[in-house]
Design goal:
alpha+beta; 2 domains; elongated
Length: 157
C-alpha cells in the first residue's frame, strides 16, 4: 500500500525530483501508518492481496468466458423457436468455508445468463436455471475450484 501511495504522489506531482521523493516518502509513510493504526490495515493484507491476485485475475477471465458461452446458448434458445427449454430449480451444497467465497459464487452464478441464485442459506444454494444444460455440474464448477484455491491460500497466510 505504501508503494501505491508513493506512485500516486509521483503521478500527481507530474515529475520526479529528490525533494518530491523525500517529501512523498515521508507523507506516504505517515499515511500508511495512519491506515495501519486507525483503519485496521496491515502489511499482512498486502501480502495476502498479492498472493491472491493471479487467481483472482484467472477467476475474472473464466467468468467472462462463461458469460460469453452462456450468452451464446441463451441466444440459441431465442433463435430456435422449436427448442423447448426445461427450466429447473437446482439445490446443492457447497463446501466453501468463508461467507465471502459463497457470496462470490452466488453472484457469479447470477451474472451468468440463464442462471440466477434465488437463495443462499449457509452453504445451501438454490439456483434457477433456464435449461437443464445450465444445471449440470454447478456444484463442482471451475468457480468452486478457484474459490477453494483462494481459501487455501488465505489459510496459509
Amino acid at each position: 500500500m505504501f508503494v501505491v501511495f508513493l506512485l500516486l504522489w509521483i503521478v500527481f506531482n507530474g515529475r520526479i525530483t529528490v525533494e518530491i521523493l523525500l517529501i512523498g516518502t515521508f507523507l506516504c509513510a505517515a499515511l500508511f501508518a495512519f491506515c495501519c493504526r486507525f483503519l485496521g490495515y496491515s502489511v499482512k493484507k498486502d501480502v495476502r492481496f498479492v498472493r491472491l491476485l493471479p487467481i483472482a485475475v484467472q477467476y475474472v477471465v473464466i467468468l467472462i468466458a462463461e458469460i460469453l458461452k452462456a450468452n451464446r446458448q441463451v441466444l440459441f434458445f431465442i433463435i430456435t423457436p422449436r427448442y423447448q427449454v426445461e427450466p429447473q430449480i437446482v439445490h446443492f451444497t457447497s463446501d466453501l468455508k468463508s461467507e465471502l467465497a459463497r457470496v462470490v459464487l452466488a453472484n457469479s452464478i447470477t451474472l451468468t445468463p440463464g442462471t440466477i441464485t434465488i437463495g443462499l442459506e449457509g452453504s445451501e444454494f438454490y439456483v434457477h436455471c433456464l435449461d437443464r444444460e445450465f444445471a449440470e455440474g454447478m456444484e463442482n464448477s471451475v468457480f468452486v475450484k478457484l474459490l477453494k484455491k483462494m481459501e487455501a491460500l488465505e489459510e496459509d497466510v
